Amino acid sequence: MLNLASLCFPDREKSCFFCCPPIRDPAADPLDDVAGRRQRFRENRYRLAERLRQPREINGESCWGLGFLDDEEKQIGCLLHPLQNHGRDLRHLTGYQFKCANALCREAEVFAALPESSQQLALALCRGMDSFTYSSRTNPVKQLLCWEREVTGPVLAALAANGRQPTLQDLVDEYGFLWQKLDFRLDGYLAGKLISRRGVDFLCRRQAELPALRQRIIIGLTRKLAATAVNNGRLRPCHCLDIPLSLSRMLKFGADIWELPEGIESEIVSAIESEVKAFV
Ligand code: SF4
Ligand code: SF4
Description:
single chain, mainly alpha, two-stranded antiparallel ribbon, 15 helices, 4 strands, binds iron/sulfur cluster
């Protein structure tokens, strides 16, 4: 069994396998056809030696190297990983070693940047889940981690400050609006801004007004940028500008702005800041 304390391998009871294979259908979820997956993971474990003699390239449906890592069928992971093979990396046998070795979801990056107490709380909220439920993107903790550190950190801190050990249901009851009513790609930046100015409670109280605020900001920015973009030739993709990822997401998915002139960052940020200031 692997025992690396992280979002990928939180404890000995479960592991995350969401990113396998790295060429999967992005809409596929570990909770789809659990019985079929369980059967495949068992077979992959017991027929590994045979598969290694006749390796084949994987497709986006599944990987013959993904299986149960332990006899109790609790943890699920890569049977071809060096940690499973005395240091030998066998992932090249599937044809996607580079992608496999570099697969790291944004949620894991956000998790890694949290204070240790928040990491421990996030993992404690997942206690009792099996690997399928834990890996699923319907897992509320994974949903929360989509919201970047500016939101995830304060939400976990607020949960911890409740005075008793919070539960997963507390997370859903108090902050489920984040993924049930809002969208991290559209609202992540503004939610972080509101929290940094007025705290998590303020966001909870005013969450219903966030889409309208976002829309106002987008209309203003679109007008402003239309003129700027015409006057300035050198465009760069939004995610390459010196702005937070959450802001580039809002521009792309909220305003359909995918490229912007270099050097425009501070203008955009201060235009948004004035709207946010007026809102709070
Ligand atoms: S999806 Fe993220 S948390 Fe899950 S195994 Fe991959 S990198 Fe780790
Ligand atoms: S080779 Fe390993 S890491 Fe790559 S898709 Fe298969 S199980 Fe996942």
